[in-house]
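debug: dumping io for the single-chain case to check the tokenizer round-trip. Nothing else runs in this session.
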Amino acid sequence: MRVGISIGSTYPGDDHRAGPRQVIAEARAAAAAGLDTLSLGDHHASAPASYVQNVPMLGRLLAEWDERPAGCLFLVPLWHPVLLAEQVGTLAAIGGGPFVLQAGLGAGKAQFAAMGASLAERAARFEEAVELIRALLAGETVSSPTWGIEGAAIAPRPPAGVEWWVGGGVPRAIDRAARLGDCWYANADLTAPRAAELLAVYRDACARHGCEPLRIAIRKDVLVAERARDAEELGDALMARGYRGFERGAVAYGDPDSVAEQLAPFAELGFTDVIIRTMSAPADVAVRSVALTGEVRARLLQA
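debug: decoded output
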């Protein structure tokens, strides 16, 4: 199982340089720890919280990275396909490895309204946009009445290719991941038993559509400390406050040995990649957690 990181980029407060600095610190820790992939999320109109935007931030982080895959989550219906393809093409040309394009539908009435997008039409617009972006990144010229596109083509294009990781947590969305993507990107809220159920749905969908997944990935919220009790004290407090509505079995926290034990069932189920996101913690604790995730990775590779 590969271990990558999706760096959290939501920050409170009025110091608008603090968030980017924290993201850079975690990226440096992830690079030094030997993690396999680097990615950032996507959200819009997040005030009063600050959400560091993925495209410019990843451009900065690629200076800390190397030939390993890197990429972003894009809430596809909120992006114009030509703009999204151009951003991916440029980022991929800066980076050294394959670009990981994590594609999601997005949610939230306020977020869609802020971006002038229709929440009701998001699934149909997602599917058409994915087809258009794929074609643009392959060097084709595209048109679309839906998006108001006529005779568009882009450059640069990804020199090392693109991996399409399509998110989804219900059967219809998982079927979409099999049809349109190279990989199903499973939600962070899944416990191992529920992940097993949905993985079976995905494999059935792949069989129906005659495709073989390049990878099967899952995101996990994680907190690692040298001493298990330090991570457990903070993790237990977060869970007691209803951390993201997750069950305890959906998150992993403790020392490197115990976190590897908590993540190992997902590898046994057949997930090829786990993408960790650090649970809410003070800045120095979060950076140290990322650094220690390298030890978690080593233990999972030995299993």
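debug: round-trip ok. The two ends are 9 Å apart (CA to CA).
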